[in-house]
Write a structure and sequence with these properties.
five-stranded mixed beta sheet, globular, 46% helix, 479 residues, single chain, alpha/beta, binds uracil
Length: 479
């Protein structure tokens, strides 16, 4: 029996090195026990010695490759609290040596389990991003922002970079029972976890946050909020949520009674609010959070955040550049001239717009005023980067089979780097497990001065969209 000792609960590099050496030395999964250093006493007590990867002979000449997809999956699943995660990952690695397509067999028990673990970890990261609240501790020059959070999984290090980019200018600490993360304006450092009783109580932000929360409280989200109670019990708004919920329940109950006692007209029935499933509520919740986004300065001049829209079950997600003048006023993406062009091309490609999710890389309108006109400005890289969190979260909520990047800004956001449109256009590209199709932005077609070129380019655009159309039809068939 080999007892492999890792440095800590999230020691992916240690696991990877050990797993590689074990596999190269043909050590079967059943012959390995995995543990972490802080549980070492247990083994000391039973007088069993643990090995680290360095205790196994290396086999420097033996070739052993696994796909980037597996590495990403393992890096995520290792953050799950499941005590068998190291063993499960090694078992998968062992099986992948002879069964290269194993990860595609989603009915396989090991594959299903690791996928479920990774999904739970992503969900937890998402919740932490959405629910964590900083409190201001100290005064003026010494002010520091502190948050307490109890994650379900060991996600603090994975979730922290989001807060570093979102709150880059303020020194903060995120305290959790597992580990604590600290940002000093330059780098994130990790220290040990703490007990809740040690969390500083002083709080100047609390009252402000309660007032803000009362303002944005949305009773339409009652169902989600009830399901998420365990997450908001640590938030400052916890003390006011119960009365707000009770008020909203009273109003909703009254509304339903009133409607029932009145003779209905069909229009009236259609107006009755629908109870939606949680899947839909996730995008609704993201939209609500994004409404207050201040991650870059564009919110200051724009009328509102223009979030994506469409079914959460969409298998195709279209990403544009940013809302224009009309979209900024209407609060919906692609409703102006570029939207008309897009609608026409979608129809010609056999795609119903109502079946796809439509969003933008940047969610605020960027412009310069010229008299009465607001002149569109291209978003820059820091703006695209600041807004990318919303695209990533829409992507995670929708999990489309295909993302269509319309133009260079969308492609930059989708791939996380500058990606030339012409070089990558019109073919399916695998990116982090999602297929991506790059094509031109519909406003490019509007700007072409020559009618022949316009017709030609329009047809090319439709042909690109047809790739998405055939995928949509295939997945409708399979459903
Ligand atoms: N252009 C875009 O990229 N998105 C819109 O929503 C409108 C115009």
């Amino acid at each position: 029996m080999h007892i492999m000792m890792l440095d800590n609960d999230t020691d992916f590099d240690g696991w990877r090195k050990a797993a590689r050496r074990l596999a190269l030395n043909d050590v079967k999964p059943a012959d390995v026990t995995w543990t972490v250093r802080n549980a070492a006493e247990l083994f000391a007590a039973s007088s069993v010695n643990g090995f680290s990867a360095n205790d196994l002979p290396d086999a420097p000449h033996a070739a052993f490759n696994v796909s980037a997809t597996f590495v990403k999956l393992a890096r995520t699943a290792i953050l799950h609290r499941n005590g068998d995660r190291f063993a499960l990952l090694y078992r998968l690695l062992w099986r992948l040596r002879s069964h290269h397509d194993l990860l595609g067999t989603t009915t396989d028990l090991d594959v299903a389990e690791v996928n479920a673990m990774a999904r739970a970890v992503y969900r937890d990261i998402d919740r932490m991003h959405a629910h964590l609240r900083f409190r201001e501790i100290g005064r003026e020059q010494k002010a520091r922002y502190v948050a307490w959070f109890e994650p379900e999984h060991r996600i603090v290090e994975a979730a922290a970079p989001f807060f570093a980019s979102r709150f880059a200018d303020m020194p903060w600490s995120i305290l959790t029972p597992d580990v604590s993360a600290h940002w000093d304006g330059h780098a994130i450092s990790i220290t040990s976890g703490i007990d809740k009783s040690e969390v500083p109580a002083e709080d100047r932000l609390e009252e402000t946050w309660r007032r803000h929360y009362t303002g944005i409280f949305n009773p339409a989200r009652l169902k989600v909020m009830e399901a998420q109670h365990s997450y908001w019990r640590n938030l400052p708004e916890d003390s006011i949520i119960r009365p707000l919920l009770e008020d909203a329940m009273r109003m909703t109950g009254g509304f339903i009674k009133n409607v029932a006692s009145e003779p209905h007209t069909p229009e009236r029935q259609q107006d009755t609010p629908m109870v939606r499933g949680d899947a839909h509520d996730t995008i609704a919740a993201l939209r609500e959070q994004a409404a207050g986004c201040r991650a870059c300065p564009l919110w200051k001049d724009a009328t509102r955040t223009v979030f994506g829209e469409g079914p959460q079950t969409a298998s195709v997600m279209l990403v544009g550049e940013q809302p224009g003048d009309k979209e900024d006023l209407a609060g919906r993406p692609f409703v102006g001239p570029a939207g008309e062009m897009l609608d026409r091309a979608l129809a010609d490609a056999g795609i119903a717009r109502a079946k796809v999710y439509v969003t933008n890389a940047v969610k605020h309108f960027k412009f310069v005023p010229r008299g009465k006109i607001r002149l569109h400005q291209k978003p820059n890289t820091p703006e695209i980067r600041a807004c990318r969190q919303w695209y990533e979260r829409e992507l995670a909520a929708i999990q489309p089979e295909l993302v269509v990047a319309l133009g260079a800004t969308a492609a930059q956001s989708v791939f996380g780097k500058i990606t030339p449109v012409n070089k990558n256009r019109g073919r399916l590209i695998d990116h982090d497990g999602t297929k991506v199709l790059v094509t031109v932005h519909p406003s490019y077609l509007l700007r072409l001065p020559d009618e022949d070129a316009k017709a030609r380019e329009y047809q090319r655009f439709v042909d690109d969209l047809k790739i998405a159309g055939s995928l949509l039809r295939r997945s409708a068939h399979a459903a």
